[in-house]
Specification:
Blueprint: E1 2-10, H1 16-31, E2 36-52, E3 55-67, H2 72-81, E4 85-93
Length: 95
């Protein structure tokens, strides 16, 4: 198992309940094969450096933990298909 960080930007018009549901869904996928979520950081609403799909703001979330690499394609597919997510990135952290 390796240390990873999942970063995502959620559209500003998405309700807080829907944001929490999305983070919970991603956390369940990440822990489905024995992974462990260590920390979920919510940076809140921030102005983007440049417009993405004509949107100037978004809610930033970072999920850190120990995950199996086999769950990462499923997580990336879930974020890519979600209309709520503007941008996402999965980073492998050095331990």
């Amino acid at each position: 198992m390796n240390s990873y960080e999942v970063a995502l930007i959620v559209r500003p018009e998405v309700e807080e309940d829907a944001q929490q549901a999305l983070i919970e869904q991603l956390s369940q996928i990440l822990t489905s094969e024995g992974g462990q979520v260590e920390n979920v950081e919510a940076w809140g609403r921030r102005r983007l450096a440049y417009p993405i799909k004509k949107v100037n703001e978004g809610f930033y979330y970072f999920i850190q933990g120990q995950f199996e690499s086999t769950v990462l394609p499923t997580v990336e597919r879930t974020m890519r298909l979600s209309d709520s997510v503007l941008r996402h990135m999965v980073i492998r952290r050095d331990s």
